[in-house]
Amino acid sequence: MIPINNNIQKMMKVYKINEGISFSFPSNWLVEHDNNLISVFDPQNGVGALQFSIYEIKDTNSINLVEKLSDYLEEKHGAVSVKLFIDYSYSDLTDEDGVYWRYWLFSKKNRIIFVSYNCAQEDIGQEDTEIMQIIKSLN
Fold this sequence. Notes:
disordered N terminus, single chain, alpha+beta, Protein Transport Mog1p, Chain A, two-stranded antiparallel sheet
């Protein structure tokens, strides 16, 4: 578990996606919303980008989060390990080009929220505190 820096928490803005879904992000980061893709990144000192895609699903209870994320990642990266936490599935990997990826799949308010983060392999960990704070704030 990555500790949360309380100083960062005090400097957060809230971004409302739609109908009650929102997340908090550092005030010095930017949010770009293009159709169904929301990108969050630090334009000055950032090393990666966090992206959200939201899909409306009538019955989220019937969705197996591990299976859905595994299916998506296997098409893109081959066999991967996907873990289930309380309310989301998660995976991380480094692809053949040396790009590090983290993926999450959430089920919230009749929606499936697909989240990805990527950065160069040598930059792994530099934005962990901020990324985890954003992820934990998703509601």
